[in-house]
Amino acid sequence: MSDETPTSSQNKNKPKDDNETSSATETEEDTTMEAIRKFFAQKLNLVTALDEDDGGNKKIIDNLTFEGLCDHWKSKGFKNIITMVGAGISTSAGIPDFRSPGSGLYDNLQKYNLPHPSAIFEMDYFESNPQPFFALAKELYPGSFNPTPSHYFVRLLHDKGLLLRHYTQNIDTLERIAGIPADKLVEAHGTFFTNHCLGCRKLYSMEWMKEQIFSDSVPSCEDCNSVVKPDIVFFGENLPETFYSLPARDFNKCDLLIIMGTSLEVQPFASLIDRAGPKCVRLLINRTKVGNDFGGIGSWFMLGPGLMFDNPKNTRDIAYIGDCDDGCLALAEALGWKDDLAGLIKSEHERLDKENAKTRDERKKQATNKESDDESSTKEKDKA
Ligand SMILES: [Zn+2]
User: What does UniProt give as GO cellular component (predicted)?
Assistant: First the structure.
């Protein structure tokens, strides 16, 4: 993690200010100290005392509003767009948000009799009692849901050759279902798409796992009989290797970062916003304004200045407050892509509906066969 501090990439070429007496090259420690100093300066409302000289104070976009962004996009364009998303882009698909009270996933976990809700995603608990996780996985299993307009907007960015990378916190695989290629994805919290044996690390496919989960058995390895676990990141597990290897390259190139449907509360994911260089425009599409008031004490040393919407020194941050789908549709409309997006959604949903109907029929058939098998075996027993 040491090369992943959010300050390292963007402050390298920063001219020295009057307060810095050292002539030595900036070390990791310097940049960390700088981030801490800025953090406290901001907390104490010393915003005007900040010295954000990297890239100057010139606005990247003259009019820092959603309309201003759309005008800039149409006239000057963006070439390397990164999208960075959380549960908010999947809620309209019907997937419950982990964290929203009432509708949230944790509230539905009572029936599993867990010692505490998050135990369902803890390795220790899983290894001793994997059954509740798989019962929940059956309820939430990818394939029962269709991607949302937000997913298809990202797919459209890819189709138009503009998507550099899509960083997602979601484990629902809706990005893959929406047709965003695997090499464009960083699934920061893992995925149901691949599965590994906890004993011998043998790889199992999504199809194999699906069959196990829907037949209500705890998936166990064909070679060593250990439990097989989907590659979603549990508490205490490392994030995927690409989360550490790709940002340095990606965020250096990125000229537009679109942040959607995330509270920016979960680290280290949230700190990605500070990896974007000073010339990168950052658009937040979310129901509430987030990322502009970092106060999480537990991870405060990780944080850069965050998003600057309400700061007089803002040069490049824009917020669209509303649902992700509405924001994406508004962008598509402003860019003249409304028909492209509508066409893509229609054809893809038709394709998926057909596939899902086929899967449902197969499951029904399997269930009927199982029932008749059970019946005949009961009869056999009765005879005996
Ligand atoms: Zn095994």
Answer: nucleus
Q: Which residues are annotated as a binding site?
A: 197, 200, 221, 224
Q: 197 and 295: one domain? A: no
Do 108 and 170 belong together in one domain?
no
Residue 275 located in a structural domain: yes
Catalytic residue among 116, 151, 189, 196: 189
Q: How close is the Cα of 130 to the center of ligand 1, in Å?
A: 16
What are the tens digits of pLDDT across the range 131-169?
A: 989 988 887 776 678 999 999 999 999 999 999 999 999
C-alpha of residue 189 to centroid of ligand 1, in Å: 23
The tens digit of pLDDT for each residue in 298-344 reads: 344 455 678 998 888 899 999 999 999 999 999 999 999 999 999 99
pTM of the model: 0.77
Q: How many domains does the chain have?
A: 2
Domain of residue 121, CATH code: 3.30.1600.10
73 CB contacts (<8 Å, ≥6 apart)?
256, 334, 335
Q: Give the distance (Å) from ligand 1 centre to CA of residue 143.
A: 26
189 classed as catalytic:
yes
> Annotated binding site for Zn(2+), which residues?
197, 200, 221, 224
Q: Are 66 and 318 in contact (CB under 8 A)?
A: yes
CA 205/CA 207 separation, integer angstroms: 5
